[in-house]
Amino acid sequence: MSDLGPRPSVPYWHLWVDEEGVSHQRQCRLDHYGPHRVGDADAQWNNPQPRSEASVVFTVQPVGWVGEWHENPAPQWIVVLSGRWFIESMDGTRIEQGPGEFSLGEDQGCVEQGGRKGHRSGTVGNEPCCLMTVQLHVDPVRAPCHVR
């Protein structure tokens, strides 16, 4: 059996909504990993999430694409496969992500303020941005970093 090394702590961004209906972003960490074996394979670190129904959607955003103010269609994990994109929340926080980075989009139920509701997003650079989303069929939680 191989040595697992130190327990992982993997960063992700969480787009969430406060009680006033304003979207915010906070960098969080997946850090509730435990050792797990699959059959006879060496142990690996797993951080299981609550079981729920989900839909997987792959998207390709062309160069120059901008999604003006909108909410995510459902709480969803968004993983950048290639290219780069940005996410801007109502509080003015703007982040950029590239391949291998991911976020939890959970900005449902925002209240429009000054023409802003939810978030803006768009491609960065001179190549399309390919994303994989895992849409969770669950109610959003109004708290940052609630994922274990």
Describe the structure.
The chain has 148 residues and is an all-beta fold. The chain has one domain: Sandwich (Jelly Rolls). The protein is 0% helix and 47% strand. The protein is built from no helices and twelve strands. It has a six-stranded mixed beta sheet, with no helix packed on it. A four-stranded antiparallel beta sheet has the order 6-11-8-9, with no helix packed on it. Strand 1 and strand 2 form a beta hairpin. The two termini are 27 Å apart. The mean pLDDT is 96. It comes from Ramlibacter ginsenosidimutans. This is Cupin domain-containing protein.
The low-pLDDT segments are none
Largest sheet: 6 strands, mixed
Q: What percent of residues adopt helix (DSSP H or I)?
A: under 10%
Question: What's the overall geometry?
Answer: globular
SS-derived structural category: mainly beta
N- and C-termini, Cα separation: 27 Å
Largest sheet, spatial ordering of strands: 2-1-10-7-12-5
Q: Quote the average pLDDT.
A: 96
CATH superfamily: Jelly Rolls
InterPro entries: RmlC_Cupin_sf
Protein name: Cupin domain-containing protein
Architecture blueprint of SSEs:
Blueprint: E1 10-17, E2 23-30, E3 34-36, E4 44-46, E5 54-61, E6 66-70, E7 76-82, E8 84-89, E9 94-97, E10 102-105, E11 119-124, E12 129-136
Parallel strand pairs: 1-10
Antiparallel strand pairs: 1-2, 3-4, 5-12, 6-11, 7-10, 7-12, 8-9, 8-11
